[in-house]
Structure formats: C-alpha cells, structure tokens
Design goal:
Layout lengths: L7 H7 L7 E5 L5 E2 L15 E5 L10 H11 L14 H4 L18 E3 L2 H7 L3 E5 L9 H18 L5 E6 L3 H12 L4 E8 L5 H9 L3 E5 L3 H14 L3 E2 L5 H7 L1 H9 L7 E6 L4 H15 L8 E7 L4 H6 L30 H15 L4 E6 L1 H12 L7 H15 L8 E6 L7 H9 L38 H18 L3
Parallel strand pairs: 5-13, 6-7, 6-9, 7-8, 10-11, 10-13, 11-12
Antiparallel strand pairs: 1-2, 1-3, 4-5
Helix pairs in contact: 5-6, 5-9, 6-7, 9-11, 10-11, 11-13, 14-15
Length: about 500
Amino acid sequence: MRLPDFSPEDRALVMPQTQGDLRYQCLGCSSLHGIDELLYTCPNCGQVLLIEDQDFDRHAATSPVDWRRRFDLRRMLNLPALKGVFRYSELIAPVIPLDSVIYLGEGHTPLVEAEPRLTGQIGFPFMFKNDGQNPSASFKDRGMAAAMSYINYLIKHQGVERILSVCASTGDTSASAALYASYLDARVKSAVLLPHGKVTAQQLAQPLGSGAQVFEVPGVFDDCMKVVEHLSENWPVALLNSKNAWRILGQESYSYEIAQDLDYDLTGCAVFMPIGNAGNVSAIMSGFLKLHRLGIITSLPRIIGVQSHHADPVFQYYNQPDAAKRKWRPVAVQPSAAQAAMIGNPVSMPRVRELARRYQLAAGPASFAVVQVSEQEIMDHMLLANRHGHIICTQGGESLAGLVRAREQGLLAKDEFAVLDATAHHLKFIGFQQMYFEDSFPPEFGVRPRPDLVNSPQLVRAQGLERLPEPGRPLEGEEMDEFVRLTALDIAKRLEL
C-alpha cells in the first residue's frame, strides 16, 4: 500500500519522526554517555552499556491501541526502511532517520506451529520462530541492521570518513557483519576473527564470500573476543559483537514480532532461547519490558534460556536458588554441536542480571529461568524436529531440548504454550547432521545416533545391466529403456510398492 493511500490521520501515525534522547547507560556506575561516538564499555568503570531512551515516557502519549495500529498499518506500507526491524523504529532507535536505515530483508521471520505428531511426542504445544530465514541465515541480522544503520547514519550525517568493523564470532556474527558491511558505503570495511577449526565450512564461506578479511585465531570464541576487545580499546574500530549496545536494540525486534504475530496477547506464552554471548536473551527481555511498559501487551511471557552442559555459565549462575549466594564464574567450554552458543564467558552477562531483575520485578520470580541440556539431547531434538517438517539448526534443537527439560522440572503450567528460537538455518550446521548419521562424532561430544533418526542415501545399481549411463556417454534406445525399467523395479521393491 502506498503512503498517499492512507488517511491523513493514519499517515501521521505510520511515519516515524526522528526524535528521542538516547544515551549509553552504564550497568556498573549508572553514568550516562552521549551516542555521538561508538562506545562499548563505560569510560569511567569499564562495565558494559545499555542504550536507554531518556525521554521514553513521551511514548505514553500514544495509546496502546494506536501503538498496535501503527505497527499493523506498517505491515501494509511498501517502504523498505520500515519493512525490517525498523517497523518498530520508535522502540529501537528513533534517532536514526529513515534515509540511514539498512534493510537487507531481515526480521519478520515466521512463527511455524509444530506439526501435530511432533506436538504429541513432546506433549506440549509449541512453535518455532525461524530466524534462519534472515538474509545471512541467522538471528544476528536483527542486531546488525541496527548497528550498521547507526554506522550509516554517522557516515551520512555526522561526517565520519572511514570505518573498519571488527567482530569475533562462532560463525553467525561474522557472516552477518561481513554481509552488511559489503552492502554499505565503500568507506566501511570488515574484518572478522574466528576460532581456528571451530566454525563450520558453511559459516566460514559466508564472510569470505562477502569480501571480509578473515583471521583464524587459535583457541575458542572467548579467546577471539579478548583480541577484538583489545583492538577496540586501542584502535579506532567499530566492534560489532553484542558488546555493542546498538546490536541489543536491533535484537529486541524478536520480541516485538512475536507480540504482533500473536495479536499482542502473550497470555500463557513461554519463550525459549539458547544462550551464547547472552545478547539475545538480554534483548528479548528488554523488548518485552518496553511493550509492557506502554501497555501494548498486558502480560509478560515466561523467558527460559537454554545452555548445553558443555557451555553453561549462565545456567550455573542461576542454578543457585538463593540470589544472595550467586557468584559469577566463567567456564572452560567443551566442544558443542550448538556451536553458536559455545561461549564460556558471555560479555552480556551484566545485562542478563539487570534485565532479569527488572523482568522478575514486573512478572514474578518464575518469569525467568535457565535450564541445562546435554549434547545428545540437542542433536536428537534437532533431527526429531526436522523429521517433522521444520528447518532448525542445532541451537533450535537446544531450544526444543530445553522445552522438554523445563516440562520435566515443572517450570511450565498445563495451559501454557511455547515459542522456540531456531537461531539459524539448518544448512549452516549440516556437518553435525552428517556426523550423527555416520556415527562419527568425536568422543568428547558424547553423542551417539538413535537408529530411528539415522538416514543415508541408497545407491541403485540394478542387476542385469551391461552398461550404465555416464556423463558424455548416454544410453539410447532399448538400452535406455531397459535401464529405466530395471532401475524403477529395484526402487519399487525397496519402497515395497
């Protein structure tokens, strides 16, 4: 629908205004800092930051009904800058004008209800949010759209001449950062640091294809992150990990989309997501809190994070029921099929603590929890879901395994339903599926295939054929007819036709 086709009242409602008083707010000393430069930690105390709109209360002048109408009308507007995560511009980054918004098709990924037989096996109603259908095939594009739109704004309106974007990655962040940088102004260059040998071939191919400089570093993600942090502290680079608070703003869109797709009624909803660097779970809580504060939703969903027992520092922290006795301890990670979540010292943990505190104040102590699952459960549940028409990655399998674990622990009520985060496309992690089918997982994973989930191709070489078709040597006439007949007969027998 074209903008002139809206009524004057709806036209004013639909088009966002560049406004707001966004500041970096330190989670350590509570100091505020301007957003005219890229900050990743507080210059006073070194703690991580959130970006808070100091004039957020102005939004109360718009009724919840009008907020919902605004977002719903934007669904019909054929304007690229409002098609992606900036459909919710006022809640994400209202200081960024539409001419600076980068849209590559991110956001508004589908909620797909679980196939009925799968629901019956799990014993609980749920749906997947397929974030693997973002342009770089993972949820990272949500935050990258916001961070790169801000960089675009600095170039277009603030006179910034040249920017080198840098990130550490387990694979998905590097693919997203490189993709968005390659689309942007030629003055933006991209460099990514990956843990050597710890990234799938598909994930490695993405930043290479986008033209980024790719550096493989010995160790794991946490080691790469330390190097990137040192670079950002000593050279003028744009750090694009979730330590960048602009990334958190963009990832809040996940919450807004769930609310909109469920007609803003989140009664009985429980949202499950894997926890890696802890940026996503932080953003999701922040997003739901904003919606609730404005009355756009009247109930907050339950939030349940999931971690593998091979990378579970957040689970270990919250596994202590007495908040006064909790102590933060990073863990040494072990190899995990949920590779994107294989992080032992998540940089956004201070955000998790603060936002979980706010969330539990608003919705009660049971509104936030973290569960732990095994590597075996992650792989089994990924394959189980994909056997029933889904396209989830290992992290999606982690979410489904987390749902089963939460039910076992009595964390869910009978009248609830779940939304599970499938963070990336299945094909990014296809190597783990192949290892499962071939029973070739290294021993440290502790994964053995379930026979009912194993699948492999069958070579068909029908008996009685003197010659088979080859490239450049096709069969013809009766010879081809006989090949077709005998091959089809062999297949028909195997299919018990």
